[in-house]
Amino acid sequence: MSPNLAQLHPYPFQKLRQLFADITPNPALKPINLSIGEPKHPTPQLIKDALVANFDGLSAYPATQGSEALRTAIGHWARRRYGIGIDPATEILPVNGSREALFAFAQAIINTGTDHKPVVLSPNPFYQIYEGAALLAGAEPYYVNCTASNRFQPDWDAVPDDVWARTQLVFVCSPGNPTGAVASLGDWQKLFALSDRHGFVIASDECYSEIYFGKDKPLGGLEAAAKLGRDYTNLVMFSSLSKRSNVPGLRSGFVAGDAKLMAQFLLYRTYHGCAMSPTIQAASAVTWDDETHVEDNRREYAAKFEAVTPRLQTVLDVSLPDASFYLWARVPIDDAEFAKRLYAQEHVTVLPGSFLAREAHGVNPGCSYVRIALVASQQECLEAAERIVRFVQSL
Question: Are residues 7 and 119 in the same domain?
Answer without folding.
Answer: no
